């Protein structure tokens, strides 16, 4: 029976009541735990971390992320109280100036073609100028005009010279460089002329590497840093140099604030008064009941009220009021290690382990985490003592009947079970049929889990590295074990395991060892030599594709395998049991030149994910992420670190939130996501909505219609029924650019969104207010 549903949304303002990502939006999920720099302005204490920038507001005790930055990977920051602004320098030499809630980007150094190091090491303010100590010289930024004013090349013959810091003292500008301390008159000289710069030859170790300069208590302090360690600081009173402080092996920062000089070292912070007397030392933190020792401070700031703020690697922003320490860090992943991603409903699970190219341990501390409702929950030995004495968590499987019941596989620590975020049991060769990868050491619980997946009956399948006996196991919902031997691959590492819609187990055997397939019962088994077959009517081409890295099943049941020479596809995987040899096909990109171009044939495909429109997202080892059509014959998108906010071109994992269409991309530098235009289709039109609604006159992005049945035919008309736009949804989602069939932005008015499923059995109408 034909069903008709009319949704009278009227003028409901969805944008005020429902938060949705904009199509094409990027979002980073980086850790804020590893801080690199701290600075402060009034009531705001800024902390720059590997994951981004945030500040602690001392008035309301709130943590606030700064989300409108232009780039990722902060190298350093500095706040100018005189100019009331914050300068942010990135590792790629990009620069942001934050002032009055606005972000001004200066990309000149980033874009400039300079051979050599462009790293911005330190930032020094002088009046309305910022002096950037860089790997090639000194860059002067006019803060009033937000533009590059000058560049000083002060090396021999006007060449490049790495400058580590800049300071002003008694009418001179000083530069700490890799070849000593250089100086020039602050005024009356042409600083663009390298001959204006002279070597400070009175300082001890003149001509050698100096890394820090600071003015404190009417002295210029310079830190000498030999390559073998043993840093020394010397003070200059205007006439002579003398030893200032040499009690720290590695100085990371010196900073004068008020009457105190803080010296931040690799494992401690030392505080000196105006008379060069040590008045304090911090080499551990008491954070609640935990004593942190050693500590890894990177930067220190002493506030006017005496509060000490430390940017720490591992504990983010640490505050100390003289009595107690407190770590202040926004919610997020504890680190940026992303080895595998598992999407389950709206949850995302991330593992932080790893394996080397020869499938040995990477020796990453055991840990994994969950993103749920925008909040991260971290699981590590800090929170769970049972996560100790082993390494490298590599995979997570979520019980399809209970999202809070999970199993975690590690490369040497066995299988761990958790329920409701609580540890249940750890399975190894000591208490289960799982076998050790070290049979010569029977007392060592060294069980290596390659992959995990559930079948349609709720059984968990586990493959392991075992040298004899059984290397495939089944754990039933009732807790009963059953084991199987994949004889041909005993003694070999086994990797990712996929249980497909037929309940067959497809298992990758790395390092040119192809795949292994086991049927639903575990009785039928087959070593599968992954080989593609292609015929153009004249020639038959067979290509061995034995070096496997990733696997996924698409919406039609086809198995897609990522290899070191592109992608292999088994369109009818059930034929494996009665076809020999069983060949794969190799999708070919249509480049309209009449020549067959196998998909990504020169790339190693490390990750595969299938979106709601059955399109394939393909992650590569060195070339970023590709989105290809359902058949793989059309390239839709290609993201790299060079043309997008992608953190790195080395992709470790992919996963998709089917409900929202958010594509999570794991890289060797951390996790980021892209808001795709496709999500999983619904069974009915019971939850259709349009956003933003209303469309304001200031908005020029896409209008999204979501909550649809897959492949819905969409027609948008004005209130009189005149057709404005038509399309077909990608899975359960469609988008409109706000323009009519002639390409013009539509007029102000109410528009109808008419939805029909492809069989014509279900229809739906919703309304949209558009303001021109």
From TrEMBL:
InterPro entries: PorZ_N, Quinoprotein_ADH-like_sf, Secre_tail, WD40/YVTN_repeat-like_dom_sf
SUPFAM superfamilies per record: Calcium-dependent phosphotriesterase (SSF63829), Quinoprotein alcohol dehydrogenase-like (SSF50998)
Pfam family, one: PorZ_N_b_propeller
Stretches assigned to the PorZ N-terminal beta-propeller domain: 45-197
Residue intervals passing through the bilayer: none
Name by which UniProt lists this protein: T9SS C-terminal target domain-containing protein
Organism: Maribellus luteus
